[in-house]
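Researcher: Let's do a round of design. I'm pasting the structure tokens now; please hold your answer until I've finished.
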């Protein structure tokens, strides 16, 4: 979920217009990366690594060494029991001692909402946090090369996931009818097992879908693990992602092939079945009902208004309209759990399973 303080302040900002997921605060743009970090409460976190300790219960007082059941010494402060017990007997709670865990360290920040230090995650000894400002500096260097405009920035999951997105100036018009823009996104993760990354993602303007399309030989993603070498790898990202427009041209070429290739309804259904396999014959009735609802929704989208100009209303659609149908379903129609559906949907599209489905769909609808 979007990081939100007790006063309702959200760690999210969007320039000029609401973001495609309709979350956060809209401010007059354009923004610099520094502006975005400040306005989205992503700066001055002072992220650092702190020792990890755990309370262990022993058999003697850690201050005076009196055994459990014996009496504390007269000068032992633990034996005072905060004035509530004058027996000075050593109780089990008196024998608790904080012991350091050598192989782990806590990743902490100063909360932008409370001003107090809080723990984001626990990591191993080889983990090196990358401050948001450092990620921002790298993103700024990339933007200077491309002329992109900062669009959104925010924090998810209590500050553990941070993102900044920017619109690249070179858009694509697929088949002369379907406009697609390219966004550059930087993600910073303050948790072990997640590699921070920069990626290029296409956005279809007509229905504001966020798309993820992997093209084999073109750099659209650059990731690096949180290690002492991470800052140097971020510098390498600047060099790698300078070929942004090579990626854009490659994506446009693939999209043009897809929009020119007819796709019969039965072939569209077959591809969807690869993504969402049919339930077994002996599956529960509610599972079959959900599958029927999914199939009906996908068919309605494939033939609907959103795809009208890209083949969706013809007897035969196009591979592009088939791909866009899956994208629209994942980003806007697929059920999401919880009360805050908009936030859950945005997080899934950016970081979760929805992103994986879109990669799979692009490969399945690609034309050789």
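Researcher: That's everything. Go ahead.
Model: Designed sequence:
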């Amino acid at each position: 979920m979007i990081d939100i303080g007790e006063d309702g302040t959200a760690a999210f900002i969007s320039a000029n217009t609401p973001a495609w997921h309709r979350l956060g605060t809209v401010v007059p743009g354009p923004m610099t990366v520094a502006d975005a970090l400040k306005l989205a409460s992503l700066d001055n976190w002072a992220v650092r690594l702190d020792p990890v300790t755990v309370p262990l219960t022993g058999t003697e007082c850690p201050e005076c060494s009196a055994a459990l059941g014996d009496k504390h010494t007269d000068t032992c402060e633990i034996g005072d029991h905060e004035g509530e017990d004058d027996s000075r007997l050593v109780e089990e709670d008196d024998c608790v001692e904080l012991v350091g865990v050598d192989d782990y360290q806590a990743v902490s920040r100063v909360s932008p909402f409370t001003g107090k230090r809080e723990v984001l995650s626990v990591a191993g000894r080889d983990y090196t946090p990358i401050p948001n400002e450092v990620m921002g500096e790298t993103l700024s260097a990339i933007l200077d090369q491309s002329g992109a405009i900062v669009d959104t920035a925010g924090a998810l999951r209590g500050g553990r996931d941070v993102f900044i997105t920017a619109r690249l100036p070179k858009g694509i018009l697929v088949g002369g009818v379907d406009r697609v823009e390219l966004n550059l996104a930087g993600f910073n993760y303050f948790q072990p097992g997640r590699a921070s990354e920069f990626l290029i993602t296409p956005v279809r303007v007509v229905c504001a879908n966020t798309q993820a399309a992997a093209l084999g030989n073109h750099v659209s993603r650059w990731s690096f693990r949180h290690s002492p070498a991470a800052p140097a790898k971020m510098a390498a990202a600047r060099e790698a992602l300078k070929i942004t427009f090579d990626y854009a041209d490659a994506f446009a070429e693939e999209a043009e092939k897809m929009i020119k290739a007819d796709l019969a309804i039965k072939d569209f259904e077959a591809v969807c079945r690869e993504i969402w396999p049919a339930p077994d014959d002996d599956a529960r009735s509610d599972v079959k009902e959900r599958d029927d609802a999914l199939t009906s929704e996908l068919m309605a989208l494939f033939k609907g208004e959103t795809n009208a100009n890209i083949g969706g209303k013809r007897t035969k659609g196009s591979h592009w309209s088939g791909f866009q149908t899956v994208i629209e379903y994942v980003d806007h129609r697929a059920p999401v759990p919880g009360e805050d559906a908009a936030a859950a949907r945005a997080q899934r599209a950016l970081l979760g399973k929805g992103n994986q489905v879109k990669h799979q769909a692009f490969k399945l609808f690609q034309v050789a």
